[in-house]
Design a protein that fits this description.
The structure is a single chain. The protein has 361 residues and is α/β, with parallel strands linked by helices. It has eleven helices and eleven strands. The protein has one domain. The strands form two sheets. It has an eight-stranded mixed sheet with strand order 4-3-2-1-10-11-9-8, with helices on both faces. It has a three-stranded parallel sheet with strand order 5-7-6. Helix 5 links the parallel strand 3 and strand 4. Helix 4 packs across helix 5.
């Protein structure tokens, strides 16, 4: 059975790799919806931003945290591994398409299935040292700005897509960087599949299927937000804020492959419409979990909005495009947008940074 599963994951990795290679040849993005609005200026405080993500979104959450550690106070890594895990030893030796292909094989086999441990893949100490070197070069923020972050990590016991040992390697990565163990919360005792976990929404707890939201009698959104921000007011009984579909076009770098969808979503509590000073939480969807694939299931079912309403939090849901060339709609954690995908100049990271700026005006 395990051999069969590994074969399935390798085939899945090949398909993602093919999509990534094709993505480097052309950009095919959907136009914004006719009812799309501009991202509102809300006077948000962006130096109290937090991030979370599942699967490819987990890796992107970690990448954004490292790139903009001066702004990010905490990160939640759900079914994801350590920052920089997929980077091949041949990084920089080939053009972006070739490097991305090499990275993809390492990503799937080493940073999801943990099959390359004998070759030192997902080595937290090595990855921490590489992160420090990037910080010294100035392509990400100083490591000193990461050390005080609050970090939440989660791995379901039924997850066979990103295995628990990889998530544990991510936790160790933060320790190697110097994040105090007291700032790190690693949850590994819930029988969830490869999915975002809720108290009463989604599929059966152990499932790993679209829309990758499962009911495990556990409020993951609340737990991770409370770990990052400390004591929060109790969540609202129901969401009363405004869900806005906004145009991501203004945030796309010109003449650069970015893989972003035409539109994103932001949830704005009433209090944040009426008064400036709200904080922002960025929630990165996983592969096959964007709006074009599962509609608003991830946005509506995770429960972030109810916590946002009572705690003056704006929830930003940036979106990656689903096209024939990117059928999984994954965030770039292996370099399909270019060699700088781990830095603050990465197109997707730069775009989300621009969204934060727009919300802060």
């Amino acid at each position: 059975m395990r051999t069969q599963q590994r074969g399935q994951y390798r085939r899945h990795g090949f398909l993602i790799g093919l999509a990534a290679t094709l993505l480097t040849l052309t950009a095919c993005e959907r136009a914004p919806d006719q009812q799309t609005k501009a991202l509102p200026a809300l006077g948000a405080v962006i130096d109290q931003t937090s991030v979370s993500g599942i699967s490819s979104g987990a890796y992107m959450a970690g990448q954004f945290e490292m790139a903009h550690a001066k702004l990010v106070v905490g990160a939640a890594i759900i079914a994801g591994g350590p920052y920089g895990c997929s980077e091949s030893v041949f990084a920089g030796a080939f053009s972006a398409p070739g490097t991305a292909w090499l990275n993809l094989g390492k990503a799937v086999n080493g940073c999801m299935l943990d099959l390359l441990g004998i070759w030192g893949v997902a080595n937290p100490d090595d990855l921490a040292r590489k992160a420090e070197k990037r910080a010294e070069r100035g392509v990400i923020d100083p490591i000193a700005d990461v050390i005080n972050d609050r970090v939440y990590l989660f791995s379901g016991t039924a997850d066979r897509t990103v295995v628990p040992s990889i998530v544990k390697a991510a936790a160790e990565f933060y320790v190697k960087l110097g994040v105090p163990p007291a700032n790190i919360k690693l949850v590994t005792d819930i029988p969830a599949g490869h999915a975002f976990v809720t108290e009463n929404e989604g599929s059966a707890c152990e499932r790993s299927e679209k829309p990758y939201v499962v009911d495990c009698d556990y409020d993951q959104a609340g737990d991770l937000l409370k770990h990052i921000y400390g004591d929060l007011k109790p969540r609202a009984a129901s969401a009363t804020g405004e869900t806005i579909v906004f145009d991501q076009g203004p945030f796309k770098p010109r003449d650069v492959l970015d893989g972003l969808a035409g539109t994103g979503v932001v949830y704005v509590p009433r209090a944040c419409r009426e008064n400036a000073g709200c904080r922002i939480h960025v929630a990165f969807h996983g592969c096959a979990q964007n709006r074009e694939t599962v509609g608003d299931a991830f946005i509506a079912s995770t429960g972030y909005d109810r916590w946002a309403d009572t705690n003056k939090l704006i929830i930003l849901y940036p979106q990656v495009a689903t096209t024939p060339l990117n059928p999984q709609g994954c965030w770039d954690w292996w370099g399909y947008t270019g060699d700088g995908y781990l830095t603050r100049d990465a197109p997707q990271i730069a775009a989300v940074r621009g969204m934060l700026e727009a919300l802060s005006k």
